[in-house]
Design a protein that fits this description.
five-stranded antiparallel beta sheet; mainly beta; 1 helix; four-stranded antiparallel beta sheet; 330 residues
């Protein structure tokens, strides 16, 4: 269809007098247009921005603009010519690349969902990414952009809550665990490697002197085999344990020689000692030491507790200062 323009004269002088009014009417013709303007009837560049109104009544309605769903119109080239850009791919964003727009996926250390949720990947944040001044000693502070903690970096107020009077321990998996406060007088007690420690009542037994003897006797021997050096009788008792304590200087001349504590005829503990191969085996070569052994109590008859020399040594010297038996009630 083309545009038709009709011009009608304002006055017909075929009849009637020529008057001023008729002349004025003749000078004002009537112009009417029908049809529409086709693209071939408009010169290139003839329609400028100034010729397009901005009122809603004259604007081009959105329904008349044909754009694919999920796409936008982007100017390309110079001067820019509108073209469609597909922007509907899930999780992608529009990024300027210096000349135009591009729809790209978020990559690197984070991902973006179609709902707009940005997620940082596991193990992606390292100490090198953190500023050493991001926090202070009241929270956590890193040292030289590494992931080590500075002294006083975690204040007590920043540790998770627990019970009043409690402490923090670790369970069998090595995970921190709150240890509940105990009752008055209880002490923190290890529960081994299977669980965190706990507060428990302290069981304190009694220790009593069951038998004692002090002497300054020095015993020398040049014989072989087992020899008794000193013996003390343990009375009938109801103790849970007996602590044998001997303060002495002991010396021998052979590596195979040992001293031992016996309960009657049963050996309870050996004491290997340094040897002295010098002539005379002077007791001054021997250190003053306390030799101890823990044996079961509850003897129902008087029982000798004996210090003996054993082995193939032909010489030994023993200077006994004290020989004590302590009864322990657990």
């Amino acid at each position: 269809m083309s545009l038709n323009v009709t011009v009608t004269k304002g006055h017909d002088f075929t009849t009637g007098p020529v008057t001023r009014a008729a002349l004025n009417a003749a000078a004002t013709p009537t112009v009417s247009m029908t049809g529409s303007v086709s693209a071939s009837e408009i010169a290139d560049g003839a329609i400028t921005g100034a010729k397009i109104t901005g009122t809603d009544a004259d604007a081009i309605p959105n329904s008349k603009v044909a754009v694919t769903s999920g796409s936008i119109v982007v100017g390309t080239g110079s001067p820019g010519v509108g073209s469609e850009l597909a922007a509907g791919t899930s999780g992608q964003i529009l990024v300027g690349n210096g000349s135009t727009l591009a729809s790209v996926a978020v990559s690197g250390d984070a991902t973006l969902s179609s709902a707009g949720a940005l997620s940082i990947g596991n193990t992606k944040v390292t100490g090198a990414m953190l500023n050493a001044a991001i926090v202070d000693d009241a929270t956590i502070e890193i040292d030289s952009a590494s992931n080590s903690l500075k002294v006083k970096s975690i204040a007590a107020t920043n540790i998770g809550s627990g019970s009043n009077g409690g402490v923090i321990g670790f369970n069998s998996s090595g995970v921190g665990a709150n240890v509940a406060a105990g009752n008055a007088g209880e002490v923190l007690t290890s529960n081994g490697t299977s669980d965190a420690p706990s507060f428990q009542s302290l069981s304190v037994g009694q220790i009593k002197l069951a038998a004692s003897e002090e002497t300054t006797d020095t015993t020398h021997s040049s014989g072989t085999n087992t020899r008794t050096i000193k013996s003390i009788n343990l009375p009938i008792n109801s103790y849970n344990k007996i602590l044998v304590s001997i303060e002495a200087r002991l010396l021998c001349d052979n590596d195979s020689t040992t001293f031992a504590i016996y309960e009657d005829s049963t050996k309870r503990k050996d004491f290997p000692l340094p040897r002295n191969s010098g002539t005379g085996y002077d007791i001054s070569y021997a250190r003053l030491e306390t030799f101890t052994a823990l044996i079961d109590g509850g003897q129902t008859a008087i029982t000798p507790i004996i210090l003996k020399k054993e082995g193939s040594s032909t010489n030994y010297t023993a200077h006994i200062y004290s020989f004590r038996l302590w009864g322990i009630d657990e």
